[in-house]
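Thread: phosphoenolpyruvate complex, take 2
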Amino acid sequence: MNADLSPFPAELSGRRPIVIAGPCSAETEEQVLSTARGLAAAGVRIFRAGIWKPRTKPGNFEGIGAPGLKWLRKAKAETGMLVATEVATAIHTADALRAGIDMLWIGARTTANPFAVSEIAEALRGCGDVPVLVKNPVAPDLEAWIGAFERLSRAGIKRLGAVHRGFGHFGPSKYRNLPEWRVPIELRRRMPELPVLVDPSHIGGKRALVAPLAQEAMDLGFDGLMVECHVRPECAWSDKEQQLTPDDAVRLLGSLVVRGGESSSERLDMLRHRIDMLDSELIDILRRRMETSTEIGEYKREHSMPVVQEGRYRALMEERIAEAAGLGLSEAFMRGLFQAVHAESVRLQLP
Ligand code: PEP
Ligand code: MN
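Output below.
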C-alpha cells in the first residue's frame, strides 16, 4: 500500500504479520513496563494497553484512566516501541494525543455507535497523520464498520487500519466472539488498500485458541495480529483467560507459518481454506435445519397433520429461488438443492 497511508511505521512495511501486543489493560507502572520489556525483547514493535476499558458489565475494572498514559510514554522511552491505546470519546482522544500516544484504536462497542465515531473523528480533525485502527462492531455489520472508516476519512484521517476481533453471539460457542471470517474477507474486497489485522485473543477468549486462530489469520492472508500479553496473565485485572506471557508470544510468533500468497499454489491453498470454512458453516446450517424439521415432524404427528403439505412446499421453493436469484444464484441449482433438502426433511418426518 501507499506508505503515506499505512498506519504502521515504514520499518514494518512489507512485514507479515505486523504485530501489536500488550496487556488488555494497563494496571500498574510495573506491570506495563515489565510486559513491555518482555515484548520488546521478543521483537514486538508496537505495544498496546487499554487505559479506558469498555466493560460489558458494571463492577469490573474499567481502566486506570489518564494517569496510565505516562506509563505508556515510559514504555516507549525505554523500549523504543510505538504505543497504542483505545479511545472511546473526544476526551480520551485529546488526552491520548496530548500524552504522545502513537496509535489509537476504536473498540468494538464504539464502532457500533456512529455518534461516538463522529465525535472521535472530529477530535482528530487536523491530526490527519495519527494512525487509527478500527475494530469491527460487535455485530457482524460490515456497513457500520466501513461507515466508521468513512467518518474518519472525511475528518482527514489518512492512516487507517482494521482489526477483526470477532462478533458477539447468543448461546454457547467454542469462541468468545465468532470469527465469521467472511466478514473481514468481504471488508478486504471492498477496501483493498486497508490493512486488516486479526485479534485472536478476543475471538478465542482462551489462551489455547490464540495460536490456532493466529495461524488461521495468516492462512487467510490477513496482514497482522493484535495479541493480548501480560507478564502475569493469571493475575490480570481484565481478560485473564486469554492473555499470553511474553514468552508464550515468542513461541507463538516463532511457530507461525506465514506464506506470501504470491505464488499461484499459495493463493490456491488460501482459497481452498476459505472453501473448507464455508463448507463447515454450510454443514452446521444443514444440521440445524434438519433438527428443526424433526421438531416440526413431531408437531405434525401430535396434531395428526400430513408430513408433506403441497402448498407450503411450492411457496417455499418459489420464495427461496427468487431470493437466491437476487443474489445471482442459478434457478436450476437452487431447485435441485432445495429438492434434496426437502426430500431429507420429509424422510426425517416420516414415522
Ligand atoms: C481490547 O482490545 O482491549 C478490547 C476491549 O477489545 P474489543 O473492543 O475488541 O472488545
Ligand atoms: Mn481485552
